[in-house]
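re: that chain from earlier
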Amino acid sequence: MKENTQIPGNAGDSENNSDLENDSAINQRQLDWKDLLLVIAGIAIIYFGVGYIFIWLGSWYTYERVLLYLNAFATQAFFLILILIIMKIRRWKWRDFGWKPVQEGYMGKVATLYILAWIINIMYVAFIVSRGFTPPETDAYTKLLSNNTLITLILNFILAGILAPIIEETLFRGVIFGSLQTYMGKWTAAAVSAAVFSGLHLQAYGFFPRFVLGILLAYLYIRYKSIKPAVALHATNNIMALLLVLFVEGI
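^ sequence. v structure.
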């Protein structure tokens, strides 16, 4: 991967001015088109490759839910390896992925956008149901979240509430959106990164809600110049989904 920092200034600038410039942009380190496409291809290979392996394992191993958890954790592990490869080759630090301090409170905005996302989601579900479409109950995500025990609840919380928000936001907002916005308008970049984020989940009926969530996550990145608020919204969305399933099953 070729280094493409595009950081303004020169060797004669003071250290304070350099730090100010580094904090003024969302992500001043980005990948060029070739390397960005390689990363997106890598993400796709991880999704489909790991999924194919566990589908093959499912042909002779009968404990489907065990395979689903192994698949999910393996996917996140390979995503983390991809992040570490970028760090090694490009000599990036975590702040170059968007992990920067936030100078103001953001949880109120996160809560507002979460409510907005759920309103849009409810409207979307009502629309598709009115058109005679019923969301499937046998997809991988439904199987992971349903019929919880204490062990699966802990695994779901670690996977959906911690690992996925941190690792996926680092890749999809920190790398993909952070790079795309240097080559196109920020909202076009937000839409493209959201489409990639949603499309790779391989859920036709869930594409639109995840696309909307991806736009909101990019907005938080733009607004606060850090992926920390996006991670908070992603985690809130996933954890509330877990709690909702527990509530429904409890009834």
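The chain has a mean pLDDT of 84.
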